[in-house]
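PROTEIN DESIGN WORKSHEET
SECTION A - STRUCTURE
LENGTH: 204
C-ALPHA CELLS:
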C-alpha cells in the first residue's frame, strides 16, 4: 500500500482543475485510468456501470459547440425546462459565444460520464464511488479532474435527448460526470480544513 501520509496528501491535495492544456491525454494513460477505476466496488458486486469517455479533444470541441448551440436554440424558443438551474443554462451560450467563457466544460479536453443499470441494487451510489476512485487515481498520475454537476444537469435536465446519442443504453440511467485532462495549473499545497466535525453517537 502507499504510505498513509501519501494517501493523506493525495486526499487533502486533490483539487478541482478548471484550466487544462489544449491536448489529448496520452491514450495509454487514459486507458490505465479507466482500467484501474473499473476496480471500484459496486453494491452486491453488480458491476453494471456504463462508462462513456470523450477521449478526443477535437470531438469534444464539436460536442461543446453543439451543446451551447442547442441550449441557445431551446432558450430562444422558451423550451428549457423550468427549474432553479434554468437561468444558468439560458445564459451559458451567450457567455461562450461572446466572451469565450466555457462555464460547463471549463475548457477540458475530455469528460467521463457514468451511468448504472436501472436494476442495479446501488444505482446511485456505484457511479459516485467509481468517480471518487477515478479522481484520486487520475490526480495521483498528475492529471486534472473536476466533478461536473453542470454537465450532469445539462444532460440530465436540459438536453436529455443527447444521452442515447452519447451511447447510454435504455437499460441504464445517467448518474454523473467528470471533466478530465492535462492540467494547465499545479496546486502547491494541500487544503487544510482542520479537524472533522463529527457527532459522537450516544446509545443507552
Ligand atoms: C458533486 C460535485 C459537483 C461539482 N460540480 C462542479 C461543476 O459543475 N463545475 C465546477 O467547476 N466545479 C464543480 N465541482 C467542484 C467544487 O466546486 C469543488 O470541489 C469545491 O469548490 C472545492 O474545491 P476543490 O475541489 O478544489 O477542493 C463539483 C464538486 C462536486 C463534489
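SECTION B - SEQUENCE
RESIDUE ASSIGNMENT:
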Amino acid at each position: 500500500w502507499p504510505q498513509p501520509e501519501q494517501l493523506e496528501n493525495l486526499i487533502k491535495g486533490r483539487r478541482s482543475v478548471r484550466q487544462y492544456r489544449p491536448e489529448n491525454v496520452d491514450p495509454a494513460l487514459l486507458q490505465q485510468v479507466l482500467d484501474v477505476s473499473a476496480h471500484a466496488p459496486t453494491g452486491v458486486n453488480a458491476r453494471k456501470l456504463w462508462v462513456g469517455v470523450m477521449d478526443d479533444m477535437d470531438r469534444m470541441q464539436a460536442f461543446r459547440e453543439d451543446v451551447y448551440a442547442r441550449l441557445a436554440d431551446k432558450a430562444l424558443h422558451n423550451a428549457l425546462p423550468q427549474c432553479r438551474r434554468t437561468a444558468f443554462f439560458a445564459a451559458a451560450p451567450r457567455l461562450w459565444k461572446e466572451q469565450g467563457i466555457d462555464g460547463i466544460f471549463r475548457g477540458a479536453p475530455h469528460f467521463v460520464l457514468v451511468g448504472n443499470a436501472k436494476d442495479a441494487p446501488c444505482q446511485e451510489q456505484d457511479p459516485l464511488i467509481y468517480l471518487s476512485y477515478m479522481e484520486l487515481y487520475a490526480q495521483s498520475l498528475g492529471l486534472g479532474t473536476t466533478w461536473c454537476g453542470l454537465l450532469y444537469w445539462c444532460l440530465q435536465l436540459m438536453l436529455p435527448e443527447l444521452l442515447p446519442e452519447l451511447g447510454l443504453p435504455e437499460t441504464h440511467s445517467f448518474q454523473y460526470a467528470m471533466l478530465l485532462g492535462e492540467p494547465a495549473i499545479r496546486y502547491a499545497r494541500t487544503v487544510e480544513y482542520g479537524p472533522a466535525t463529527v457527532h459522537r453517537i450516544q446509545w443507552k
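SECTION C - NOTES
The chain has a mean pLDDT of 98.
The pocket of flavin mononucleotide is lined by residues 15-16, 18, 106, 146-150, 191 (CB under 6 Å).
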